[in-house]
Design brief:
Layout (H helix, E strand, L loop, with lengths): L1 H23 L3 H13 L1 H10 L4 H44 L6 H4 L5 H13 L1 H45 L1 H16 L3 H37 L4 H13 L4 H13 L3 H15 L1 H12 L6 H15 L3 H21 L5 H6 L5 H4 L1
Helix pairs in contact: 2-7, 4-7, 9-10, 9-12, 9-13, 9-15, 10-11, 11-12, 13-14, 14-15
Length: 361
Amino acid sequence: MATNDRLLVQILLLALFAASLWVLAPFWSALFWAALLAFASWPLMRWLSLRLGGRLSLAAGILTGCWVVLVAVPLVWLGFNLADHIKDANALVKDLQVDGLPSPPAWLGSLPLIGGRLVEIWTTIDQQGAAFFDTLRPYLGQVGNWLLARSARIGGGMVELALSLVLVFFFYRDGPRLAVFVHSLLQRLIGGRADHYLDLVAGTVQRVVNGVIGTAAAQALLAYIGFFIAGVPGALLLGVLTFGFSLIMIPPLIWGPAVAWLIWQGEIGMAIFLGIWGFFVISGVDNILKPYLISRGGNLPLVVVLLGVLGGILAFGFMGLFLGPTLLAVAYNLLTDWVADKAPPVDAALDKPLPGEESRG
């Protein structure tokens, strides 16, 4: 009877745990980003709390306010600018419908081989503007629906970001108690190896954060240099935007339009330079610097890091950039620990003859 009662209690505890996870499911993403932000900036939190005499709540409030200013305010500013650009784009489309296309730029006809053909296409589109826009009208509706759906997703992301900035305050304030709780839980589950795996997870996440931020900073600097050399206006602002877009791994959305603007201005040489610089230098550094920074200082093989980063992104989206390497690192070390006591030494395995070699000898 006692065994049945114990089994019933375990089933009820599992049901309670599953129900709790279900309640928290809508907030997993916000909780993840808040925890990641608090973990990555914890040295700053520790330094600030020491300067404030150990008042964790005050330090957490100040640091959270700083994140709001550094993250939320620029995003709101960017949102207003995007809204203005959308209004300008709508006005441009209406002007094109009424007045048609402007005269083709002089440089368009001077392009070798295709210049005359492009001018002819430009003139044809201008002469048949009404029919052209009538042809495009069904597709414009689809594009509008697509933009509306993406706008809704961006709005949801903004709400999620705001929630993350609220939750990070509690991670700052209750961080030490959460760390003790996680340590006690792991000790209950795996015993003396708890410290090892805590250090493993913490080190992996820290290296991934350093790799992502370090790569984004390098891409922003290289982008600024390229914009400055090419004479693109607002090079510093575009470099800062490149940093933000590098965090979500799409910096071509910044240097790509800059290349198009240079082509429109007739700066073909600078456009070719910036296109090559953007593709091979700005975007190419991501393939070299990020894996190096993530694997630097760890005992994981580089292939495990690369598979963790790429597979994590495909499986979980941007969140997988951090989850993928961490999961593979823990799994790799679990397997290493499991076979460590049973596997023969490497030297002995190399000296041992392969099956069938004894008979040939």
